[in-house]
Write a structure and sequence with these properties.
Pfam families: FBPase (PF00316), FBPase_C (PF18913). This is fructose-bisphosphatase. Its EC number is 3.1.3.11. With 261 residues, the protein is an alpha+beta fold. The protein folds into two domains: 119 residues, 2-Layer Sandwich (Fructose-1,6-Bisphosphatase, Chain A, domain 1); 117 residues, D-Maltodextrin-Binding Protein, domain 2. It contains six helices and 13 strands. The protein has an eight-stranded mixed sheet with strand order 2-1-3-4-5-6-7-8, with helices on both faces. Strands 10-9-11-13-12 form a five-stranded mixed sheet, with helices on both faces. α3 links the parallel β9 and β10.
């Protein structure tokens, strides 16, 4: 992927989960951040994986700086400055969801012609869903607000009075894609997800689809990144479902025991 972005001549700087720091490529107009293989631990068990990317415009005000500093400043842009983002899901079909700032759209790979075809028109995340996605096995590590919220929606005591179901793949792109199509919530209350190349692109896509993205206290796209591999809690999904969750307060998991995989 790095080689393809370099050869395009359009990209000034890149940053990814695989690199320790940002890389300056040249004088192109764009900056690209990406997670090349989300859910990579699932490969051997054939569970869906994905790719996440976000695109910014190069910051000309940083052009006079040394290359390392210039690259870092360009990739640490606030999510509100995103000009395009997308994810690819590798599953029973290869699907790419994309936004360039005017809505959320989906494309499916047609293997017979080797091209992506326009398959999901103007995706709108339902205002409410009835599915939540997070690791229930960690329930006793969660803060009280998150526990109370999950208890209520499981028992049908939330605002909708419907009983919610749990669906958890442990592959962020897959869990989010289901949430985008059917509504509900995809979340991780721990400071686990990477702001720059996971949370920001996915939050941009969710907002373009009419949903909501937060770390439990702040809108994700308003957070100023201070380091490339900065981590935070992430709650994505239906506008009304996320608003109800946040109303409980105390949903970020501060206590974080080591989880062995």
């Amino acid at each position: 992927m790095n080689a393809a972005l370099r050869s395009s001549g359009k990209v000034a700087a890149i940053a990814s989960e695989e690199d320790d720091e940002a890389i300056w490529l040249g004088e192109g107009p764009f900056v690209v951040v990406f997670d090349p293989l989300d859910g990579s631990r699932n490969i051997d068990s054939s569970i869906p994986t994905g790719t996440i990317f976000g695109i910014y415009r190069r910051l000309p005000e940083a052009d006079h700086l040394p290359l390392t500093e210039k690259a870092a400043i360009n990739v640490l842009q606030r999510g509100e400055r995103t000009v395009a983002a997308g994810y690819a899901l590798y599953s029973s079909a290869t699907v790419m969801c994309l936004s360039v700032g005017s809505g959320l759209y989906g494309f499916t790979l047609d293997h017979s012609i080797g091209e992506f075809v326009y398959s999901h028109h103007d995706i709108r995340i339902p205002e409410r869903g009835q599915i939540y996605s997070l690791n229930d096995a960690r329930y006793f590590d969660w803060p009280s607000g998150l526990q109370r919220y999950i208890d209520n929606i499981r028992q049908g005591n939330g605002q909708t009075r419907k009983k919610y179901s749990a669906r958890y793949i442990c592959s962020l792109v897959a869990d989010l894609h289901r949430t985008v199509l059917y509504g509900g919530l995809a979340m991780n209350p721990r400071s686990h997800l990477q702001l720059v190349y996971e949370a920001n692109p996915l939050s941009y896509l969710v907002e373009q689809g009419g949903g909501k993205a937060t770390d439990g206290k702040r809108r994700i796209l308003e957070i100023n990144p201070i380091m490339l591999h900065q981590r935070l809690p992430l709650f994505l999904g239906s506008m009304a479902d996320i608003a109800e969750l946040v109303s409980y307060g105390d949903i970020q998991q501060v206590h974080n025991p080591g989880y062995e995989v």
